[in-house]
Amino acid sequence: MPVPSLRGWRALLLFSCLTSVSAVEAARPPVAPEYQVKAAFLFQFSRFVQWPPDSFSSADAPLVICVLGVNPFGSALQEIAAGEAVQAHPLSVERRDRVEDLTDCHIVFVSGRDEDVTRQALGYLSGRRVLTVSDSDDFARRGGIIGLVTVDGKVRVQVNRRSADAAQIRISAKLLRLADQIG
């Protein structure tokens, strides 16, 4: 049996890598296009919001985006935030299981898939210097800062300015112009 040439080995290696990636991708559950859009919104919110300076342990501490409970984004949010920074704060995306583990988060996304978790998060984070975001029904009306609602197949943004003020979070006028304001 002849020994494969260098070109043959490269082709074999490339084929192995491609089939391995395809198998890994096939094993991951697909992310709904709606959640790809919501991941992009979540990333952009970091650029249109200002936290009090003492919300960060240092001038270059990470801006931490936390997903509480079920992660509907798959890897989409991680991929969008990879290598990005906002005002010298590198972005970090982390998943948390309990509301008590949200103490170092700057943005918290609460999936609307679990109403009990949403209720707990609203109670625990109320008035804290955290931008709360969810796609839970009436999230902004119930005290969350930003609600992502889907209307006629399009994701819309609702902002509760009172909740933002209570959290000492300033939301850019550009974002406010695009949002439905609640409260």
Description:
The protein is an alpha/beta fold and about 180 residues long. The chain has a single domain, classed as Rossmann fold (3-Layer(aba) Sandwich), CATH 3.40.50. About 35% of the residues lie in helices and about 25% in strands. The protein contains six helices and ten strands; from the N terminus they run ααββαβββαβββαβαβ. The strands form two sheets. The protein has an eight-stranded mixed sheet with strand order 3-4-2-5-6-7-8-10. A two-stranded antiparallel sheet has the order 1-9. A hairpin with a 2-residue loop joins strand 7 and strand 8. It starts with 5 loop residues before the first helix and ends with a strand.
DSSP E strands, number: 10
Strand residue percentage: 15-25%
**What oligomeric assembly is this protein in?**
single chain
Q: Mind telling me the C-alpha Rg?
A: 20 Å
The CATH architecture comes to: 3-Layer(aba) Sandwich
Mean pLDDT: 85
Low-confidence stretches: 1-28
Which sheet architecture does the biggest sheet show?
Answer: 8 strands, mixed
- Major β-sheet strand ordering: 3-4-2-5-6-7-8-10
Question: Given the C-alpha coordinates, what overall shape results?
Answer: globular
Question: Helix count?
Answer: 6
